[in-house]
Design a protein that fits this description.
The structure is a homodimer. Chain A is α/β, with parallel strands linked by helices. The first copy, chain A, has two domains: 172 residues, NAD(P)-binding Rossmann-like Domain (Rossmann fold, 3-Layer(aba) Sandwich); 116 residues, N-(1-d-carboxylethyl)-l-norvaline Dehydrogenase, domain 2 (Orthogonal Bundle). Helices cover 49% and strands 12% of the residues of chain A. The first copy, chain A, has 13 helices and eight strands. Chain A has an eight-stranded mixed β-sheet with strand order 3-2-1-4-5-6-7-8, with helices on both faces. In chain A, helix 1 crosses helix 2 and helix 10 packs across helix 11. The longest helix of chain A has 20 residues. The termini of chain A are close together. The N terminus of chain A is likely disordered. At the A-B interface, helix 7, helix 8, helix 9, helix 10 and helix 11 of A face helix 7, helix 8, helix 9, helix 10 and helix 11 of B.
Chain lengths: 315, 315
């Protein structure tokens, strides 16, 4: 995006062998990206049929990966290993996507730590558990950092890199180098907050969207149309602060805040605080008719997403 | 956008002569769009030097208009008329962009009403005043409806069409026809709520963005990077409901709400409620360094915006 050129020349900063733990939707998408970037991937997942299911998911990612210029021989460097110790033994990087349970992850990373050398980079895709808590059973908690992707990781650039209290700064530096070499846009957070940044912003936005549907101002489809024809277009090219900076004219954000801040605060006071009670879930579910199957919609979204990313990468 | 083809063949549904009241940033941008679509425009603005200033602003819009395929002979069909009665006398449409003061707009629309025939479509760009209130001094309040653009109107497709309590349904229908013929994406709101839809969603999003900067989780520039590399890209192609519908897998939005709703509500409870007090404004203003002049940033944003719109219009 915007001029970042992924390392397709093999210079992956010494990261060649990646172990993906948990081959659900996120794990399979990471696997597709890693393979497409020329890395060797070992998938660890105890579920029966994982190899076939993963290969099916990889096939689905091929058009997207091909469209953004990646090679597509996705199963050349892929193997499956159900034993966790063997799966991580020679890994340069571990990207974990297991169940979102603290006890599970604590135990898992303690075992991974014992089965790997000190230089193996340990990354968790968790969206809800802090690295500080996750590392509590490790002897070297400095080795673990969160690398939380925005779904699907093979397509959307953002990765939130969230260190725990004991994460070694060098682990953060190496995680950023790894994701950057993959062509991703890593963003390091300075504090461990629930939901990190993107999901918090999304939650705030969705809360008011729910409120406007509940109040009968617009339908779900109408909100979606409003967003794709205004804020989405805008925020694909300039984030909220830059947008308001430009909204302030020559005086920029300081002028904007001084002159339009009070009106903004009036709106803040008027925003809704809906809950997802049974009646609201029923209302929202009842409007959820998007005119095609989820699979068709997803395919159309990904194609459009790729067109937008290519448009922005031209500069 | 997405296959909408503006009426460039002259079939503007009988809307040929437009009067733009108030030639500030919004009024000039509307003027550029109307002229580019082949309409005849009369600008009414009492400020001295308005003709020169408007022509300067139109020149700035030319690259954007040319890039999205419009003709650029922008001052062929443009005239200036300082007398409000004369300015609107033969108008098919009036698009008002005057000061955001209720008494001013009430008086203005009462005068416009007297100076125009009953078929002249009366539209206000207001972002903050309800049509119900604005029409109170009119004898035919049914003729007035809000047509609130997302800035800049010559570039961003959304127009929020917000009827007042007494707005005639036929006025709403004609406003939608007019904006659609211009290639815009009009969205009719069912209720008059402060900030309408887009600004409320934007305010909710910005409130949490401010909170995350105040809490020291990320800087302004980092938030902007997070947004352009994830949510912005996503929402340019699929709005929040469709996105969560796809996030629910084959079960769609109902599945998503049942299974991830509680986690979402946890985040809602954790969102910040900052104020724009002096210290916060100082903090935010202090970080407002975007590495270029506002004019340069705006030009870069508009160019990127056009590339994104073209990418999405290809389907």
């Amino acid at each position: 995006m915007n001029g970042t050129s992924p390392a397709t020349d093999g210079t992956m900063d010494g990261f060649q062998r990646v172990t993906v733990i948990g081959a659900g939707v996120i794990g399979a998408s990471w696997t597709a990206l890693f393979l497409a970037r020329g890395l060797t991937v070992t998938v660890n997942d105890p579920l029966p049929g994982v190899a076939q299911r993963t290969r099916d998911q990889l096939r689905q990612a091929v058009p997207a990966l091909r469209a953004i210029g990646l090679r597509d021989g996705l199963d050349r460097d892929l193997r499956f290993e159900a034993d966790i110790g063997k799966a991580v033994a020679d890994a340069d990087v571990v990207q974990e996507n297991g169940p979102e349970r603290l006890d599970f992850k604590q135990d898992l990373f303690a075992r991974i730590e014992r089965a790997t050398g000190p230089d193996t980079l340990l990354l968790s895709s968790t969206s809800g558990i802090r690295a500080t808590a996750m590392a509590q059973a490790m002897t070297q908690p400095g080795r673990l950092v969160i690398g939380h992707p925005f779904n699907p990781p093979h397509l959307v650039p953002l990765v939130e890199v969230v260190p725990g209290e004991q994460t070694d700064p060098d682990t953060v530096r190496r995680a950023v180098a790894f994701y950057t070499a993959l062509g991703k846009k890593p963003q390091v957070l300075r504090k461990e907050v629930p939901g990190f940044v993107a999901n918090r912003l999304q939650a705030a936005f969705f809360r008011e969207a729910v409120n406007l549907v509940v109040q009968g101002v617009v339908t779900e489809q109408e909100i979606d149309d409003v967003v794709t024809s205004s804020l989405g277009l805008r925020w694909a090219v300039a984030g909220p602060f830059r947008s308001f900076h430009l909204g302030g004219g020559p005086g920029g954000l300081p002028y904007f805040l001084q002159h339009l801040g009070p009106a903004l605060e009036d709106l803040w006071r008027d925003l809704g605080t809906p809950t997802l009670d049974a009646a609201t879930v029923e209302l929202l579910s009842g409007q959820a008719d998007f005119g095609a199957t989820v699979e068709e919609l997803e395919s159309a979204r990904d194609e459009a997403q790729i067109r937008v990313m290519r448009a922005l990468g031209e500069d």
